[in-house]
Amino acid sequence: GHFHPTLPKQWYQRRVRGRRTRVEEQQRLKTLEKTTLPGFSSETAFSPSPSREEYTPEPDVSEVLKQHKERQTKLADQMLSMTQNLKQVSVAARDIIHQDNKNLSEVNDVVERNAVKLEKETAQLEKFNQSSGKCWVWTLIGIVMMIFIVMVIFIRLFPRKR
Fold it and tell me: What is the pTM (predicted TM-score) of this model?
């Protein structure tokens, strides 16, 4: 691609490599989030599922409460880990955005300095073009005057014979 002359090419390559590893890490975290607990389908609880078994009441209520409590703790642990993953991903995204903003402001400063230099150089070039044009005009006028004087002298020295 096109690189800014004041910023080295290696810096861009390191930046792209760092982004790739962060994106791969985020994708790995997303695949971990997609794992579900056994006994729970990925569908919503209100959607009818053809594989659901008929409810048969359990004789021991304490066993049912124990199973529900285990499921709740597993869900809470899963939600906690997902929240931690989300926090890590958002912190990484924040850091990337912060670094990008910093880099953009640095590049913007360089562009502004180059624009000021370019304007200054353009003004100097216009002055030079104007002054060199005047010089050529005066040089040509001098040459024409010299030729005229030489022709007058030539005609006076060698008049036409009749």
Answer: 0.39
